[in-house]
Amino acid sequence: MDTNALAYSGRAPDPARQAALVRRWGWWYQAELRLWSMKAYWSSIIGTALLTPLLYVVAMGIGLGSLVDATSGGIDGVPYLVFVAPGLLVSTVVMSATNETSYPVMAGFKWGRQYFARATTAASPAQVAIGELLAVGLRLLGEALVFWLVLVVMGAVEPTWSWLMVPVAALAGMAFGTPLAAYAATLEDEGPEFASIQRFVVMPMFLFAGTFYPLTTMPIYLQWIGWISPMWHGTQLARLFGFGLPLGGWEIVGHLAFLLALVGLGGWLAVRNFGRRLAR
Length: 280
Description:
By secondary structure, the protein is mostly helical. It has 13 helices and no strands. Helix 9 runs parallel beside helix 13.
């Protein structure tokens, strides 16, 4: 919303009306602000969504995939590219969620202090937190959609049911992003925390959570990394929709429940921690 243009037009609502609108729609105004701020690095967002699947398809389909298919006939009865494509979609979106819910959240409290500015209006701290998470979720949906379209064009997935990988990937991203946003809201100063999360949490998930091969092929003492990873649960569901990975009904429920529980817990913690921080 261009508030300056609205003010000069003479059509701006009176203060009481503005306060009422903010109390009702403050969460969306915050989401809108965050989405507009993403324009500063929109080229990076589009580049990631377009180039990442393209490069992966070339590497996995023409490179590694051809070797795997020639020696073992693929994985789970499908060519290696078909097997790995859903995992690449989910892992890319989860890593984007990590970027959006770490330093940008700290910036809202420490450097730009936009959250404190919003909290001086009629918007509540809970609306600030919800708006931030909503904006990140919409950004992840958009990235997942572009990624999926590239996979369809490149022949890595069939479009019939594989479009459901898009919301699954966004859900997996938010399952990791909401707890991270809640944690970021507690940090007062920049330290090694986010770098450590990238190095000791995100990268092990990417390498050992079944993105490139079935989790069951790993030693049992490493499989737990997948079991507690949103990336693995999201990848399993994405493979269900991508090429019909055989999953039982309770397995599907378990994967969904795990992801939804993390989103719910992370969202609750984010609202609580934003409230505590903005009440100071």
